[in-house]
Structures are given as C-alpha cells and as structure tokens.
C-alpha cells in the first residue's frame, strides 16, 4: 500500500509516518500544504491519501478541496480525511462524491492505533470508515425524521455501525449477537427507511449515508444553528 500524507502539524505528520512505516507500509511523501500534496499524488500515484481538513493558507477547507481535486485526478484513490473536530458539513460534502474508498476520522483516533489502522485498511480496500462521533451527530440531528423514528433502539445501533462502514460480522461481534440477528435487523432497517436492501456492503453503506445526509439537511432547515 503506497500512501501520501498531507498534514501541516509537523509532530502529527511525522508521528503518522513513523507509525505507518513501522507497520511495513510505503509512505511515498508527507507534505504540509495542498499544492505539494497534489503534486505528490500526481508523481507517486498512491493507493491512499491521508489528508488534514484544515491546511494553509487559511486553515479552513483547503484539505477537503485538495482531497476532492485528488479524487477527480485519480478516481480510484482512497482518501482518509483527518479532522480535529466533528465538522458535519465537511463530512457530508465528501460523502456527496460517493463513499467508496473514503474515510473521515477525528485526529484523536490516530492515537488509537488499532482503530486507525483498521480504518486505513478498510478505506484502502474500497470501503468506508466514518468516525463514530460524526455518525452520532448525524443520527442526533435526524431524529425528527419520522422514518428514523420507526427504528428500534437495537436497529439504531446497527444503523450507526453500518454508517461507520462495518460489515455484518463486525457488527455482530461489536453487539455480541449472531450474524443472523444482524441480517434481520438490516432487513428491517431498509424496509423502515424505504431503502432497497443490497448484498454488497459498500452500496448498502452508501445508501444509508446518503439517506442520513439528506435527512440531516432537511432537519437542519428547521433547527438553524
């Protein structure tokens, strides 16, 4: 797995480089600004890009813009975005381009090495890895939607884990239930949310995330912040 990193915090950047190389991964370049990052993507043709949301010069959305541009140049590029805070608009902007090979994590997850590496490998494999705190906020802001109100507490738990990108077996392990129980919950979730079930996990996660995003935008019009 070849990786390019864009992170302007030198301590975090070098820490991630050391961590990944210790895992035997190929870090082709580690940059501190969007321009050098995009040049590195063109030069090294990485499998995965790890990108900070806020980068120079304005430290607002340069990282997101660079990630979107990198995906336009390399549609097969997996992107794992890191953010210091839960920034819903950035998360949903990325999801609007499609969730395959896409991750959005809080920087604090990097210190939880197993979780960070699991998310990285999941994204590199074409899956989705959305930070649980981001998912929790999306679910919280969509509670007024009547279709979400149809879900049982356990179905809501399963939905949150689906939105993080976990497959059926991983959900079963997390909730300490059988695979069959998870499958049943998922069938119920799709029926209650008026979504067509699909056996492919990436399409299933994409549908759930898009539904949550649409519901979040609708709920937001009634609850200005």
TrEMBL record:
Gene3D superfamilies, A to Z: 3.40.50.2300
Top-level taxon in the UniProt lineage: Bacteria
An example Gene Ontology molecular-function term: DNA binding
Signal sequence, renumbered to the chain: none
GO biological process assignments: phosphorelay signal transduction system; regulation of DNA-templated transcription
HTH luxR-type domain boundaries: 144-215
Lineage: Bacteria, Bacillati, Actinomycetota, Actinomycetes, Pseudonocardiales
CDD domains named among the record's database cross-references: LuxR_C_like, REC_NarL-like
UniProt keyword terms in alphabetical order: DNA-binding, Phosphoprotein, Transcription, Transcription regulation
Coiled-coil regions, chain positions: none
SUPFAM superfamilies xrefs: C-terminal effector domain of the bipartite response regulators, CheY-like
PROSITE patterns: HTH_LUXR_2, RESPONSE_REGULATORY
Name of this protein: LuxR family two component transcriptional regulator
């Amino acid at each position: 797995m070849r990786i390019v990193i864009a992170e302007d915090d030198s301590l975090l950047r070098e820490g991630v480089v050391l961590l990944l190389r210790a895992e035997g991964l190929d870090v082709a370049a580690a940059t501190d600004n969007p321009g050098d990052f995009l040049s590195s993507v063109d030069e090294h043709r990485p499998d995965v890009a790890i990108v900070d949301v806020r980068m120079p010069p304005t430290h607002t959305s340069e990282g997101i813009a660079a990630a979107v541009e990198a995906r336009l140049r390399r549609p097969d590029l997996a992107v794992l975005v890191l953010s210091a805070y839960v920034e819903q608009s950035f998360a949903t902007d990325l999801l609007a381009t499609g969730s395959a090979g896409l991750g959005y994590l809080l920087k604090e997850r990097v210190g939880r090495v197993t979780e960070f590496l699991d998310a990285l490998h999941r994204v590199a494999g074409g899956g989705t890895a959305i930070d649980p705190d981001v998912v929790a906020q999306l679910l919280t802001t969509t509670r007024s939607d009547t279709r979400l109100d149809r879900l049982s507490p356990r179905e809501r738990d399963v939905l949150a884990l689906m939105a993080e990108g976990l497959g059926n077996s991983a959900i079963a392990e997390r909730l300490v239930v059988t695979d069959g129980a998870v499958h049943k919950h998922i069938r119920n979730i799709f029926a209650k949310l008026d979504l067509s079930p699909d056996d492919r996990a990436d399409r299933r996660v994409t549908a759930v995330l898009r539904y949550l995003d649409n519901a979040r935008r609708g709920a937001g019009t009634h609850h200005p912040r």
